[in-house]
Amino acid sequence: AIAAISYIYKALASRNPRLRGQTIAEARSKDDALPRDGHDISDDHFLHCCLTLREQGSRVLLVTGDRNLRNKGMIHDIETASAHELEAKLGGPHIGKQRTPPPAPLVDQPLTAAKPPVQTWSEEDEKAARTEACDILRKSLSLVLESELECAFGDLWRRVVFIPPPWNERTALECILKHWIALRGTAFKSSLKPAMVQILEMLKSPTASGGKLSLLLNLSLMVCSELQLHYSQLAEGVARLGELHTAITTGQSRPPKPASGVMGISGESSSCVRVQHPHGNQEAGGSQQAPPPFSPNPAAQLLDDLWPLINDYCGNISQLVGKQHPFDYVVRPSFTLDMCTVHEVYKRITLAMNYMGSLLDRSNEERENLVGAAKTFVNTSVELAKLLLHKAGLPDAEWNVTGEDMLDHLLHPEKKNTMAAGHRQIVALHNMLASCILHVLDPVPADAYSE
To answer: Which residue stretches belong to region Disordered (predicted)?
Structure first.
């Protein structure tokens, strides 16, 4: 068996075209007896963890000395390495090797070109990096905090919250720590509290230069990376924090800030304006990094396309009635305050929200009892997406999603927290649109909505 595993490993590592592995999805399609979501052995747990992280947009490296597990990883296009290989790639320390120091150059000998000195960041670079880190923290923490507060306290969360939104990075952290007992256990793991306390103390300092800035970036990266496991929308911010932290710790120059653009449904950048929440700058849409190289399943694609459409619509309507929208959105002039359309969109968002919530709440029921509701949810979501695409002036799209596809995606154990968070965000958008409708029908002072 050891010889066979080694042979398979060498063939897969060299990408031998004559040897092809069978993925989990292919195995299940040919053998209905295989469990759809159960993992009987530890290897399956590790493999599914890697696949889930990759599906959320993260780059995954599986480090293990188990060649059988590495074989499974390579079959699923997961990069693998042993500890020795990783150390060699990173240029680990050469233990036991003594190096003779070079002789001192004579005075009359020309000096050889020295290595370029490690670059130190200017005060402007450090200030810009701190501002970027704070902006990423603010947006990430605000998104997660509002969703988790609504989950913990329901519709009453605005009445009990320690500091009402909109939050900045400091007030968001203060709010999280104040409500820690109620929020702990979901996205906010106990291990994050010390890092959050330390970040809050550093933010109270007027400056954070050199080592302090490096520590701030490192702690922010750790917190946001953990939250990204539950909220995949944070992937772009996590990647940027990683770039900044790597640059300052390795003595590289500060990497330029990526252009802020919004990808359309077709994958092309929209020539629109992106509005950031709160107090964000409005920037002309440019190019954005392409999505991960894997193709999501049809149900995931439908939901991934639907959410930004709903968010953009609610954001534009909120702007037209003078209300603050909780998420970043794209300004689309074609989204007008046509009350006939607003009511139609609101009705369909309500249906989609209720069907999705019902499916998540009934996850323990027999599967055959849920297929009908799943089909209805798919049809409602497709109709809503097509309506919003038409109103936005975007090209039409098709989604070949079955009720079975949607059930597999919504009820997968690995996606439980992600789906619950997504539903809470749709509820938040639904409530925002309802607030806008009420504001148009019966205008009241803005303060009345925050009480």
So the answer is: 272-297
Q: How far is CA 151 from the centre of its chain?
A: 19
**What pLDDT, on the 0 to 100 scale, is given for residue 378?**
92
Place of tokens 């849920």: 370
Question: What DSSP string describes 68-107?
Answer: HHHHHHHHTT-EEE-HHHHHHHHT---TT---PPPPPPPT
Overall domain count for the chain: 3
Q: What is the pLDDT of residues 379-389, one digit of tens each?
A: 999 999 999 99
Evaluate whether 275 touches 328 at the Cβ level (below 8 Å): yes
pLDDT of residue 272: 45
Q: Is residue 23 domain-shared with residue 146, that is, in the same domain?
A: no
**Residue 103 forms part of a structural domain:** no
Tokens, residue 140: 């990430």
- Asked whether residue 428 falls in the same domain as residue 325, the answer is yes
C-alpha to C-alpha distance for 359 and 68, rounded to whole angstroms: 38
Assess whether 35 and 150 both reside in one domain.
Answer: no
Regarding pTM above 0.70, the answer is no
Confidence band of 58 (pLDDT split at 50, 70, 90): confident
pLDDT digits (tens, 9 = 90+) for 4-21: 767 677 776 766 666 666
> What is the phi/psi pair of residue 173, to 5°?
-65, -40
Domain that residue 146 falls in? 123-249
Please give the single-letter amino acid code of residue 54: R
CB contact set of 166 (below 8 Å; sequence gap of 6+): 142, 277, 278, 279, 324, 326
**382 with 303: CB under 8 angstroms?**
no
